[in-house]
Amino acid sequence: MAGVYIHIPFCRKACHYCNFHFSTTIQLREGFVNALLQEIELQKTYLSEPVTTIYFGGGTPSIFPSADIENIIFTLKKSFIIENTAEITLEANPDDITSEKLAEWKEIGINRLSIGIQSFFEKDLLWMNRAHTAQQAFDCIALAKKAGFNNLTIDLIYGTPTLSDEAWEKNVKTAIDLQVPHLSCYALTVEPKTALEKLIKQKTLADIDTEKQARHFELLMHWMQEAGYEHYEISNFAKPGFRSKHNSSYWQGKPYLGLGPSAHSFNGLSRQWNVANNALYIQSIKKGLVPFEAEVLTREQQLNEYIMTSLRTTEGISLEKVKLNFGKDKYEYLINTARPHLNHHHLTIENDYLKTTTKGKLLADGIAADLFVL
């Protein structure tokens, strides 16, 4: 099974922690959509398996007319085998969600929404320079449910200077009380060359408190377990039956095709990524060329990718799979490298799977790097 990711690099308003902001003029939007439709045709031989998930991300796909999104889905169905039960997700900002748009999205086949709530508190949203209000954060969930979107996820950000432990608990408990079946929760990170980094360096904004972030994450794990959510990936929690099929395919190493500027693709043996510049992307596609770079993964890189993605999941690393696919020597190397983390109770082995403990989840990325085959 395979997935398709459509990267829409347009948003109405940039956040402090993002420098990816474009103006959606009609001419620019139409040029982008036409290029995207042409890229679908050019890439139709990339996937040999039926497509089970389609994900519109970015950016903010929700600011695009529904007719554009419908056209993209129609073209995908012409070029690929799309399963009837395919999960089709659209990322949306709360301020873009209306009853009319929801009805249109449902009509064209969108069956899952990913809503960038970030926080239910006004001061947090103002600090993050978000375009929506706290009231819109509440209202959009109610509207989505009323429109029949029961399969939805929201993003929440923790560890911001404005977010106290009590406010973080209120954010999480609000999502639970609203019966949101899936949550993606992320610690605020300071990316280089962003407005946030500049403001922190100028001491206009407070720097990130890593101890607070670790505390918020530990509290989050406790609250979600109490509420009956599966902590199926480091940043993701789902009610039974509501795991993200699309994101799960990434973590399971399944092939996927990325379309649009900056989009990445993976076929199991190689990885490729499109040029990030919008104008260069459109110009190249007009000439019938997909502007991408690629690398063929070595056996060691394939194993490292498997370690990195699998260790983030609740299932963990299949030691049997490592032995069968990469050899006994790599299996023994992995066990020996993992031993210090096993001794410190950051890792455990259960039913021949190597996985993080609750304590180890705080250190998952660092542990994965330690386990890499060099």
Structure description:
Helices cover 42% and strands 21% of the residues. It has helices at 26-42, 66-79, 99-108, 122-127, 134-146, 165-177, 195-201, 210-226, 245-251, 278-286, 299-310, 319-326, 328-343, 364-371, and strands at 2-8, 51-58, 82-92, 112-118, 152-158, 182-187, 230-233, 236-238, 256-259, 264-266, 270-274, 292-296, 317-318, 347-350, 353-356. It has 374 residues and is of the alpha/beta class. It has a nine-stranded mixed sheet, with helices on both faces. It has a three-stranded antiparallel sheet with strand order 10-11-12, with no helix packed on it. Strands 13-15-14 form a three-stranded antiparallel sheet. The chain has two domains: 2-250, Aldolase class I (TIM Barrel, Alpha-Beta Barrel); 299-374, Arc Repressor Mutant, subunit A (Orthogonal Bundle), CATH 1.10.10.920. Helix 1 packs parallel to helix 2, helix 1 (26-42) crosses helix 10 (278-286) and helix 2 runs parallel beside helix 3. The radius of gyration is 21 Å and the shape is globular.
Q: Helix and strand layout, with pairings?
A:
Layout: E1 2-8, H1 26-42, E2 51-58, H2 66-79, E3 82-92, H3 99-108, E4 112-118, H4 122-127, H5 134-146, E5 152-158, H6 165-177, E6 182-187, H7 195-201, H8 210-226, E7 230-233, E8 236-238, H9 245-251, E9 256-259, E10 264-266, E11 270-274, H10 278-286, E12 292-296, H11 299-310, E13 317-318, H12 319-326, H13 328-343, E14 347-350, E15 353-356, H14 364-371
Parallel strand pairs: 1-2, 1-9, 2-3, 3-4, 4-5, 5-6
Antiparallel strand pairs: 6-8, 7-8, 10-11, 11-12, 13-15, 14-15
